[in-house]
Specification:
The chain is an alpha/beta fold. It contains 12 helices and 12 strands. The strands form 2 sheets. The chain has a 10-stranded mixed sheet, with helices on both faces. It folds into 2 domains: 221 residues, Isopropylmalate Dehydrogenase (3-Layer(aba) Sandwich); 117 residues, Rossmann fold (3-Layer(aba) Sandwich), CATH 3.40.50. The longest helix is centred in the first third of the chain and has 20 residues. Strand 1, helix 1 and strand 2 form a beta-alpha-beta unit. The structure holds nicotinamide-adenine-dinucleotide (NAD). Nicotinamide-adenine-dinucleotide binds next to helix 1 and helix 4.
Length: 361
């Protein structure tokens, strides 16, 4: 029997609540599929700052490197807002992405049929939406040098961030885009700002070159401003979208609206030897500690972990089917319930999904 080592980094706020449910789901898969899982926890974010003074606890990186996959919750919260920039909670996550070379962030945005009305957009617009945003995660504006603020004697200042990409960085994310699109409906949209940015000119040139290796995938290019509009006007026109770091950050959050709630959206960060899986949402300080957070994004992240890091596709399908069945049965956490409707808490939603998953084996 294979024993899969999973590093569990719940982080702060509802990260801790929803990650616990994702772990229960993986344990259920272990029992059902005869797979061994070994879970080891480490501190990250505010929890790590409080205990160790650093946003990533000593040993956490080595634990991640020595695991088959990482299950991550969320980090941050008002308690740590005054912490200096370089030791803020999110630095723990950024360090993991950089150190583990997690250059590709996969964010599916799917509108579940029974949740169409949870989206603020019209049914006729969102119905049938099933897309994947692939965001480059370790380059561009968020990491480019030089960066910093110059303060002038007259009281003024000048701040700089740099958007830079090498052809190698573009090529590997483009390949990831084509590979993912190939497993979906073979349509890839590359998003850039070629009319203004030289970085985008290189981006488009490299993506077009890579396309020659994927003649079975239909590629089109779209300007980012156009894409932002099209995503809420006609989201069903998209299948797989690949784009650079900043554009991807914004577009994938916009796509989140299509799924009704942040609480429904999983993600995978891939590239190096170990993948990291986390819900798209943050620590939700407004509801943390009340046991009402939706654990589905974390549970669907665990399904992505099974599919992408452990190659247990059929078990990932079972987890996704269990979530669908529970939603079909009418269970709703507060974020996806109609006004005045009955709601279940984090633990109860987890219980229902675990029970349904047991039936799938
Ligand atoms: P958020 O995603 O935490 O919350 C936004 C809104 O969505 C809130 O009203 C929240 O209650 C709701 N929400 C989010 N997830 C939910 C869930 N699972 N179930 C039910 N409702 C849910 O974003 P924010 O409020 O902008 O950020 C709060 C903190 O989280 C900040 O400190 C921010 O820096 C951090 N954050 C961390 C990550 C990460 O760790 N990857 C991502 C985003 C934000």
């Amino acid at each position: 029997m294979t024993t899969w080592k999973i590093a569990v980094l719940p982080g702060d706020g509802i990260g801790q609540e929803v990650t616990a449910e994702a772990v229960r789901v993986l344990k259920t898969v272990g029992k059902g599929a005869g797979q061994g899982f070994e879970f080891e926890q480490a501190l990250v974010g505010g929890a790590a700052i409080d205990a160790t003074g650093a946003p990533l606890a000593p040993g956490a990186l080595d634990l991640c490197r020595g695991s088959h996959a990482i299950l991550f919750g969320a980090v941050g919260g008002p308690r740590w807002d005054a912490v200096p920039h370089e030791t803020r909670p999110e630095r723990g996550l950024l360090a993991l992405r950089k150190e583990l070379d997690l250059y590709a962030n996969l964010r599916p945005a799917k509108c579940f049929p029974m949740l169409v009305d949870a989206s603020p957009l019209k049914r006729s617009v969102v119905e049938g939406t099933d897309l994947m945003v692939i965001r480059e995660l370790t380059g561009g504006l968020y990491f480019g040098e030089p960066r910093g603020v110059e303060r002038f004697a007259d009281g003024g200042a000048r701040a700089i961030n740099t958007m830079a990409y090498t052809s190698r960085e573009i090529e590997r994310i483009a390949r990831m885009g084509f590979e993912v699109a190939r497993k979906r409906t073979k349509r890839l949209t590359s998003v850039d700002k070629v009319n203004v940015l030289v970085v985008s000119q290189l981006w488009r040139e490299v993506v077009t070159q890579v396309a020659r290796d994927y003649p079975d995938v239909a590629l089109d290019h779209l300007l980012v401003d156009n894409c932002a509009m099209a995503l809420i006007q006609r989201p069903t026109q998209f299948d797989t979208i690949v784009t650079e770091n900043t554009f991807g950050d914004i577009l994938s959050d916009e796509a989140a609206i299509l799924a009704g709630s942040m609480g429904m959206l999983p993600s995978a960060s891939l590239g190096g030897s170990v993948g990291l899986y986390e819900p798209v949402h943050g620590t939700a300080p407004d509801i943390a500690g009340r046991g009402i957070a939706n654990p589905i994004a974390a549970i669907l992240s665990a399904a992505m972990l099974l599919r992408y890091s452990l190659s247990l596709g059929p078990d990932a399908d079972r987890v996704e089917a269990a979530v669908l069945r529970v939603l079909e049965g009418g269970a709703r956490t507060a974020d996806i319930a109609p006004a005045g409707g009955r709601t279940v808490g984090t633990r109860e939603m987890g219980d229902l999904i675990v029970r349904e998953l047991e039936r799938q084996y």
